[in-house]
């Protein structure tokens, strides 16, 4: 098995890295400290590197990248600005659902705006009473003469307060009287729609929101996928989402590890660089191993997705669980190497920890990933 990046991938990675370091890195601290959303033009600039619609086919305006290349790019962005990474991957997730289930008319109407980042898109599944148990959605869509009337609340929605459009998962009555999960495309200008920001621990430049749907009329043409069958649409992209989260964790872990290496070579105590102390070297070796094992699992999962391999689901869950746990240990160890400096906002280490902390919760908690992995070998579900 060969996980070497080819020359084209390396060229793309290096170009993105140069851009991020020169144009984006200098603004991160000030924006995060003031909780200012990532500027729209910074999101737009990511298009040039294949990051907007990266996985989508070229026929619809995407780049048709394999997951290994897209993951590599996501890792680069997360290394510099996790909030920017989250905005990009949330918009891409909504775009993928739209392309998978939307009519030609709906795709033509909304996709170009999302792929140019003129419109930011949200993916609204979670609710106040619905998190891990995502199938039991409570937001209701009632059929009307020309579409749907939507009522309910969506909670912890990334980009929620600044999204122009989004896909929302609702329960709708089926012809046989049962309730099925449907997906509808909404706009933030629809009467009855409103959002409230939710303060959080990190990722301050990617606002998190609660979305309120109060008798929001959504046209019939905005149905994405088949009525009552949209839960499979949401599930289909969960594996991709988990792999993306794993690469994001890898990016933050790389940044925290590299910062520790640099600091240990610069900081002196007892008349010598702290890099020369064996206990500091042990911390460096621990971080190095965690970063490298995360990288192996990320690329292994991405490769399995690209090949549509039968073990792709288990590997995506494994990469997600492992890398999102590992990044916290790396950030924590990097803080220890930095001593008091690592705890202050004068260095980015405490931000790495705060920005990484949600990754073991979002896109399916790590407990859910454990159960999904075990289920693939045991054939027994711990959930239903
Ligand atoms: C920063 C951030 C961004 C997010 N962005 C989005 C978004 O864009 N769109 C969206 O729809 N959602 C989003 N979410 C929501 C996220 O997907 C949910 O938080 C996540 O699925 C967990 O749901 P919950 O918070 O309701 O926790 P719960 O499901 O209530 O879980 C609470 C605890 O119980 C455990 N648990 C639950 N069920 C079981 C079980 N059967 N067995 C063992 N343990 C169990 C969990 O692992 C967890 O430890 C985001 C969350 C965060 C923090």
Report the bound ligands by name, code or SMILES. Answer: flavin-adenine dinucleotide
Strand order of the largest sheet: 1-4-5-8
What is the averaged pLDDT score? 96
Order of helices and strands: HHHHHEEEEEEEEHHEEHHHHH
Structurally, the number of domains stands at 3
| Number of E-state strands | 10
User: How much of the residues is beta strand, in percent?
Assistant: 15-25%
Tell me the span between the first and last alpha carbons. Answer: 36 Å
Major β-sheet profile: 4 strands, mixed
Q: Helix/strand/pairing class, anyone?
A: alpha+beta
Spans of at least 5 consecutive residues with low confidence = none
Shape: globular
- The CATH level-2 architecture of the largest domain is identified as Up-down Bundle
Quickly name the level 1 CATH class of the largest domain. Mainly Alpha
* CATH topology value of the largest domain: Butyryl-CoA Dehydrogenase, subunit A, domain 3
Query: How large is the radius of gyration?
Result: 21 Å
Which percent range fits the helix content?
Answer: 40-55%
What is the assigned CATH homologous superfamily of the largest domain? Butyryl-CoA Dehydrogenase, subunit A, domain 3
Number of helix segments? 12
């Amino acid at each position: 098995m060969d996980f070497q990046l080819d020359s084209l991938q390396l060229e793309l990675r290096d170009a993105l890295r140069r851009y991020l370091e020169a144009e984006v890195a200098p603004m991160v601290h000030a924006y995060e400290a003031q909780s200012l959303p990532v500027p729209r033009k910074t999101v737009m600039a990511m298009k040039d590197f294949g990051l907007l619609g990266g996985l989508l086919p070229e026929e619809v305006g995407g780049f048709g990248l394999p997951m290994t290349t897209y993951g590599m790019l996501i890792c680069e962005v997360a290394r510099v600005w996790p909030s920017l990474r989250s905005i990009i991957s949330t918009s891409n997730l909504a775009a993928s659902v739209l392309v998978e289930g939307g009519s030609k008319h709906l795709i033509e109407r909304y996709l170009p705006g999302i792929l140019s980042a003129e419109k930011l898109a949200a993916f609204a599944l979670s609710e106040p009473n619905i998190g891990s148990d995502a199938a039991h959605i409570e937001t209701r869509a009632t059929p009307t003469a020309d579409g749907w009337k939507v009522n309910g609340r969506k909670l912890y929605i990334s980009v929620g307060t600044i999204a122009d459009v989004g896909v929302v998962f609702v329960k709708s009555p089926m012809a046989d009287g049962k309730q099925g999960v449907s997906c509808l495309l909404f706009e933030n200008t629809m009467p009855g729609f409103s959002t409230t920001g939710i303060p959080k621990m990190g990722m301050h430049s990617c606002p998190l929101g609660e979305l309120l749907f109060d008798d929001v009329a959504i046209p019939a043409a905005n149905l994405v996928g088949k009525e009552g069958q949209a839960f499979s649409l949401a599930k289909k992209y969960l594996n991709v989402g988990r792999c993306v989260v794993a690469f994001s964790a890898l990016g933050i872990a790389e940044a925290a590890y590299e910062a520790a290496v640099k600091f240990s070579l610069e900081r002196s105590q007892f008349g010598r660089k702290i890099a020369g102390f064996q206990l500091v070297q042990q911390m460096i070796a621990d971080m190095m191993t965690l970063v490298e094992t995360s990288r192996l699992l990320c690329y292994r999962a991405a490769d399995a997705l690209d090949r549509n391999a039968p073990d792709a689901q288990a590997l995506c869950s494994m990469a997600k669980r492992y890398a999102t746990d590992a990044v916290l240990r790396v950030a924590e160890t990097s803080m220890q190497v930095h001593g008091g400096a690592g705890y202050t906002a004068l260095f980015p280490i405490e931000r790495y920890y705060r920005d990484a902390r949600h990754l073991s919760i979002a896109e399916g908690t790590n407990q859910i990933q454990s159960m999904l992995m075990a289920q693939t070998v045991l054939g027994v579900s711990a959930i239903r």
